[in-house]
Structures are given as structure tokens and as C-alpha cells.
Amino acid sequence: MWLENLRRTFLDWDAMAEILPIMLTVGLKNTLILAAFSTVIGIMIGVILAVMGISRAAWLRWPARVYTDIFRGLPAIVTILLIGQGFAGIGREIFGPSPYPLGILALSLIAGAYMGEIFRAGIQSVPSGQMEACRALSMSYSEGMRLIVVPQGIRRVLPAMVNQFISNVKDSSLIYFLGLLVSEREIFRVGQDAAVVTGNLSPLLLAGIFYLVITVPLTHLVNYIDHRLRTGKRISRGQPSSGLEEVEELNTAVSQERETTRFSGGSLSVEGLRLSYGALEVLRGIDLEVPKGTVTCVIGPSGSGKSTLLRSLNRLVESNAGVMKLDGEDIRQMKPEKLRARVGMVFQHFNLFPDHTARENIMLALTKIKGTGRDEARRIADARLAEVGLQGRGDHRPSNLSGGQQQRVAIARALAMEPEVVLFDEVTSALDPELVKGVLNLMADLGRRGMTMVVVTHEMGFARHVADRIVFMDEGQVVEAGPPEQLFTAPRTERLKKFFAEVL
Ligand SMILES: Nc1ncnc2c1ncn2[C@@H]1O[C@H](COP(=O)(O)OP(=O)(O)OP(=O)(O)O)[C@@H](O)[C@H]1O
């Protein structure tokens, strides 16, 4: 008996069949319109709020904060009633008699507050190395944000965005409080009206099923898309995985082009360079001469200021005093983006763009910043990849390459901009030991071909055999500098002797 009662309450097939067409043509349609519009407008509001929220300017941060606190803190129904009924007069003037557009607006305002927080978290979760790589590739801050950081941040929060759409689908059921026209009813309202007429809950159960039909596949779809975006098209790494094979990979790539093309490197000179982080004086009057076409290795204990010196040469950090010249031109007077197009940089942690293939990593700055045509950029990218022994791997995402291969892509990316000088910041420190040699061989090859290079390294073998000149730094100063043989066989200072005693 009670089973029969339950069946009549929830599973009245006739009532469901009767309401089905209107559920589809009116309820589903309106629910999707409400959710879609409020999600799109919410995304726009959210992006603005996120950019304001991470701004350095307090007058931008605060309004974003207040907005978010209000619309995230209020129950959705309160916002909907306040907007829908409070602004009914203005709404009528702008949109006509229907409260439907005001309902969309209210849902959008609520969604915007959540979206803003989602985007902000996504953008802030992008490693700082990504922006650094953008700047080193001569992008401005806003170009780096637009081309790499924001898209990457958004991809990271894609599942959260779809969750927000699902929330909007559900919150759209509250719009009926504003008194919608019959043709504007959404799924819940259609179900509820029918439930009143039939006197049972079957139409409402049907409404519930409709909500699930929208939301459940979406959840699975987004998980799939997220997985796909994260890993790219699965490409097997192919054979080279051991260090020996990677060295081989590079050696067999010694093409005619690599044999014959020589770089026309530029020269650097630094005098009295000083730099402080707050009260901490990190560079204390550095003098440095890097003649064109030479390799200078900077060695020294941890914390001696080697990376900071390198980063001040392409102005990723700004020095406080001193003179730096590139081919006789004052570096501190140049536009940073112009300087960085001439002085490339390769980082310890590669800083490749993970959502782009190896080829796209190289093409991006060429097409978007240098203005090279796509076909030409593609040709350059493939040639540079071939040079570093990675022909045939242009379609691989960084995650499908070994650390050594990733670092070689990063070197190819820097070379593609045709720099006059390349700065290498401990580029083998993050590599598995067996992958180091492949990268060092490549760097030695660049040096032989006349690239001007400044290399911060802990690889003493490389420094000794490849460098033209070694600079030993300690406590923010150049303690000794000279040809490798001189420093390695007859160090003059106690500090260098002690350093060699520890690292050799
Ligand atoms: N952004 C920063 N803000 C404050 N201090 C910093 C910053 N970057 C570096 N430092 C400090 O400056 C000093 C020199 O750092 P730097 O990275 O240049 O040394 P390093 O010789 O390259 O060391 P390592 O070999 O460990 O990388 C260190 O004491 C470091 O903690």
C-alpha cells in the first residue's frame, strides 16, 4: 500500500509524459539560457575582478574585494530579490516588462564574484618562472599575462568554471521568485506548476532528472577536457631516455647547418654594478668584460650573487648603480623588451610553456612579438629543434620530453630570437645526472660556433674545458677572474682555493 502511494507520488508516468514536451521546449530552453548568459557575463566580471584583485594598486584591489565579499556572502535568493525587485522600475525601462533579464543580471553578479576568485587563484597558481620566461623572450608584462599566464591560469581552473556553470543551472531555479511569464519558466517552475495541477511530485522528479541530465555529463566532460589539456595528445617519448642515447641524439644531429653557421655574438661590459634587495646588498661593485664570441663561466658558492648578476644583465632585476653595456650601448637606457630580444636567457627549471608543443614554444615569441610570419616561424622553429637534436619532436608537449630534451628546447627557443648574447642560469642543476652531458655538449657546441655566453654553473669540468674566461664570485664581488687554466692550476686567493677544495 505505501509502495503504491510512493509510486503515485513520484512515478506517475502519465503526469511525466504530459509535462515532458513543455519541459523540453520551455523549461530546458530557459534554464540553459539563464545559465549560459549568467556564466558568460559572470566570466567577464570575474576576469575583471581577478585582474583588479592581483593588481599592485590598492584602489583597484579594494573595490574587487568589497564586491566579492558582498556577492559571495549574500544568499543567492537575497541578491536575486534585491536586484530583480529593487531595480524593477529601471529594468522595465531598459528591458521591458519581463523580470527575466534582471534575473540573468542577478545570477551574473553572483557568478562574477565566484569566477573572480576562481580566476585569481588560477592566475596566481601559475609558477613565477612562466612570466620570467615571457619577459626573457622580450614580452612585456601585459603580453606575458595575455599570451601565457592568464590562459594557463584559466586552463587550470576549467573544472571550477564548469562547476560554476552547474551552480548557475541550479541557481536559475530561484529566478521564479521574480514572477516569470509562462513562456519564461525554467525547469523547476515548469515542474512545480505541473506538480500543483497533478497533486503529486512526479513532475518535480522529472525536473530533478532534467537537472541531472545537464550537470552529470558536464562534470565528466570537463574532467576529460582537463586531462587532455594537461597532457596534450599522448605521444610516447620515443626511444631516448637514457643519457647516452640523448648525447647520441645530439651528435647525430650535427648537420651541415650546424657545422657551417656561425653566430655573430655581441660583447658585454659591466662596471661597478651594485644591487640590493632591501637592506641585503647582493652585488657589491661587479666589474666584468665579456668579449664577443666568448664563453664566460661564473662560479662561486651558493648565495654569492651569481644568478642576480645574470638577471641584472637582461634587467629581469634592476640594478641600483653601475654601468652595463651591450656592444657599447648603455643597457640601462634601453627599453627592457628591446634588450631582451638581444640578450636571451635559459633557466634552471626550463620554464617551457606546458600547454604548448616544443615547436609552439619556439614560435610563440617569434610570431607574437617579433612579427615573423607563421610559415617562416615554423621553419625557424624546426631548424632550431633540429640543431639541438630534436627534429621530429616538434609536436611533443614538454611533459612528453625528458628534462634534458626540455632544456634543449629551451635553448632552441632562446636561439630562435637570434640573440647576441645568451645567459645560462645553472641550466643543468635540475637535470638527472645522466642527462647533463647532452645539454653541456650542446652549450659547448654553441660556444665553438661563436655565441657570446655567460654561464652560471656548478659544472667545473665544463667551466675548465669550455670557458674562455672564468669569473669567481663570493659575497657579491668578483674575487678572481681569468682563463680557466690559470684559475684551476694556480688560484691566487684563499677563497678560491677553499671553494675548489670543496667542489673538486
Ligand atoms: N628576489 C629576491 N629577494 C630577496 N633576496 C633575494 C632575491 N633573490 C635572491 N636573493 C638573495 O640574494 C642572494 C644572492 O642570491 P643569488 O641567487 O644571486 O645567488 P647565487 O650565487 O646564484 O646562489 P645559488 O647558486 O644558490 O643560486 C641570496 O642571499 C638570496 O637569498
From TrEMBL:
Location of the protein in the cell: Cell inner membrane; Cell membrane
Protein name: Amino acid ABC transporter membrane protein, PAAT family /amino acid ABC transporter ATP-binding protein, PAAT family
Matching PROSITE patterns: ABC_TM1, ABC_TRANSPORTER_1, ABC_TRANSPORTER_2
InterPro entries named among the record's database cross-references: AA_ABC_transptr_permease_3TM, AAA+_ATPase, ABC_transporter-like_ATP-bd, ABC_transporter-like_CS, MetI-like, MetI-like_sf, MetN_ABC_transporter-like, P-loop_NTPase
SMART domains: AAA
TM annotation in the entry: 32-58, 70-90, 102-123, 204-225
Gene3D superfamilies: MetI-like, P-loop containing nucleotide triphosphate hydrolases
Source species: Paracoccus saliphilus
